[in-house]
Structure formats: structure tokens, C-alpha cells
Write the C-alpha cells for this entry.
Amino acid sequence: MYAPIKPTRYMRGEHLMKNIDTNIYFFGNGLCKDFQNKEHKSSTYNTVYAVYGGRCEYNDGIKNINFQKNYVYILPANKDYVMKRYPEDSLNHIWFHTDIFPIINCNTIIEFDMKTSKYVQSLVEAAIFRISDLYKYLTSGFIDRYILNEKRIIGLPPRKMNNGTSNMESYTAIFNSLNTILQCILSYILLENDNKYILLHDRYIGMAYEFIRDHYHENIDNQIIAERINIARPHLYRIFKQKMNITPHQYLLNYRLSMANFYLSQGLPVTRVAEQVGLDPKTFSRIYKAKHGFPPSRYSHLPYP
């Protein structure tokens, strides 16, 4: 069986006003000419945009936001919403799909005017340059596969690049610097306004997140998660519903499907992807189709930026 998790400094709440932690899944820079309206189905990660041109609208059925130039937007995890794009005025931006700790309330959409902070402006500019630096370390196969150029660049964590980079050491160094830059941007926006935004400093949710991310490919359920973080299963269920508006089981399924999209984008067969995310192929295909509206065999691209 699994040994109980020991709380980290984040989980114990010892550095809540000192820094933000991130875990980047996907990032990029440039125009999004190929995308129009797109429904986001309750992803487990937050999406961060720094916009420097173009047009886009966010709508979750309650709140509607027209993206503005020179703004940073932090969109919620575990929430359905629609992004409306305009091909004639393509959004020009950098983006990150990332976990953010402490966790942002799922009903919170953050808008930050970069013109109010030279510090944030300089960090966003540094992120743009760092992403541009990555281009020379991408293999021609990766560039051709995802139709990239010096003005449209995407990247994944080093452990997921496989044969996508020609120099893993340099790629990793740049990726790590991007993660640090993102943490600095978010720390300024969130922690300077901690009384404005609802950040969830729950140790049990933090421990459950960590366990799910480390063991999603195994045969785990609510009972195993609760035992691992040393609380009763009903209490685990209750704090997820109250604070995250989602059950632990739903979060586990969403995370498995997020990881499945990555494996599918790498060309793995559906049966192999199902194995990688801890599901049998029949169950995986059924859950995937119910979530996305099409079977996993039709997936053929990276996550939507």
C-alpha cells in the first residue's frame, strides 16, 4: 500500500505570502490563426494568457470578457467555458497551461493591466524572448509536425519532448527559466492582491493533487487517495466539493483525460494511451467520448492554446 504523504511547505501553509508554485504542461507564443470558437471542458490546469494584440472573447455562461491588449488573464481550472476567436484579427499572445499553487478558486477569472506595472511588463517581455530562444533547439520533425516558425512557437516540459529537441540540456535550462518567470508574474499579480483573489490554502487538497499527479496511471480511487493523505473518504469528498466545485473522482478523471490528450498528440495508439492513464481501453474510449464529443482515435493535435 501507499505510505501517507508528508505535507510540503506549501501544504503546511508556511510560504503562502512568499511565492507561487507552478507546474507547466504546455506553452507557446504567437498568433492563433487556426482556431475559432472552442469549448474548454473543465481542464485540471489553469490557462495564463499575456495578450499583445488581436481579439478574443471568454464566456462561461456567467461572465463574458473581451480580451484587451497588454493584459494578463488567468483562466480557471475545473470549469467549462468557451473561447471565441476571430481569424481576421488573430489573438497574438503567449500562453501557459499550468498548475498554480496555492489553488485559485474555480469561479475566479483574473484580469491584470500590464500598463500598471513595469515589472510585469518586463517579465512578459523576458518570457517572449525565452520562448523565442527555444526555436533553435527544436528538431525539424517537431517543427514540421506542429507547423511552427519563428513567430509561432510551442513547447512542452523537457520530460515530454522525446525527440522534439536537438539539445535537451539547453532546452531544459530555458524551460526552467520560463517556469521561474511565470512564477514571478503570478506572484506579483496574486500575492500583491491577496485580499482581492480567493486562493485556496488547503493542505489536504494540495496533498490529494500531488498524489493524483504521481499515481493517476495506477488503479486508485477516492478511498486510496483518502488513506494516502490520512483523512476520511467523506471528508475528502466534502472539501473537494466545497472548495473546488468538483469531486475527487471527477478531478482524477479530468487529469487522466488531460494526460491522455498529451499521449495522443505524441501518436500513441489508443490502447497504449488507455494503459498510460490507468484505464482499460473500452472504459477510456467511453469516458473520452463523453467528455469531448468524439472518440480518442480522432484526436490529432496538441492542446488548444
Remarks:
- The first strand starts at residue 21 and ends at 31.
- Residues 7-18 have pLDDT under 50 and may be disordered.
- The chain has ten helices and twelve strands.
